[in-house]
Amino acid sequence: MAAKVKKQSLGRQKIEIKKIENKSSLEVTFTKRRHGLFNKACEIGVLTGAEAAVIAFSPGKKAFAFGYPSVDTVIERYLSENTKEGGLVINTSTSTSHHRAVQESRREYVEALAKKEEETKRVEMLKEGGEVGFGSDRFWWDRSIEGMGLEELEQYVASMEELKKNVGIRVGELEKASNSPSRFLDLDSGVHAIENFSTN
Asked: What is a single molecular function from GO for this protein (predicted)?
């Protein structure tokens, strides 16, 4: 049996980095190196979760691009969320989708805060005897008594008497503050007529 002769190779050798003059060698080298570069970009994305994009133009002026997760995602993020400062690119957010989610949450928070403020004002008006939710120009005393039970009617009457008393107090305050003829509500007679009178 013949002894195996081991084929000797030159192995991996360092090549001189300079422009390749032979056109066919240049195209073959570009294709191989482009695939290697894209593989490295893919590996860094998969292994570390980094977002990467590589764009290369061939000697024939044809564009080739690779991106992880996609070229558009990486470029959009670069253009919209990074700032240049002293030539260095500083990352200001983790991802476009995360940024959008944060913006949406902020918008919802501001809307909820505005609604809360509106409701707080409405509750304060209700406590002061103002508007109830029957429309923008309706008040609690405009509510129909047709559907009220006995307990609700008693509460309604008590509220009306309280309102009558408060209106009487306010009319008295206004009469004292004014020395000119004024109008007043005859609250004691039960007649809601407005009469002119002069104070002497």
From this structure: DNA-binding transcription factor activity, RNA polymerase II-specific
